[in-house]
């Protein structure tokens, strides 16, 4: 087994962050870093070098798309795969989020039991 998949999850909702931690922190093939917003993610990303970044779309101050735009400028994240996590999953919104550079859109509420597998698939081939 190669190195653990480095996953960053960015969400302003403490309850959702807790569910993600519960879902992913015990996965032996993943290393998880949870951030409470865009600025925290941008500060932590260069050192953590996430391979998969899951972003909440609607966050106060700096939303998911703005955070994605900033993270994309970091050389350490040149090969990272980005996915949005949102309750807004109409086809038009999903197409828009993909046009921003996301490889997948995960619907909220997500199933905590299948989240790890979805993230693994993002790490492998980029389709969630």
Automatic annotation (TrEMBL):
Keyword set includes Phosphoprotein: yes
InterPro entries per record: Bact_response_regulator, CheY-like_superfamily, Sig_transdc_resp-reg_receiver
Source organism of this protein record: Fluviicoccus keumensis
UniProtKB keywords: Phosphoprotein
SMART domains: REC (SM00448)
Protein name stated in the entry: Response regulator receiver domain-containing protein
Residues recorded as bearing 4-aspartylphosphate in the entry: 56
Short name of any one Pfam family annotated for the protein: Response_reg
Domain Response regulatory: 6-123
BP GO annotations: phosphorelay signal transduction system
Database matches in SUPFAM superfamilies: CheY-like
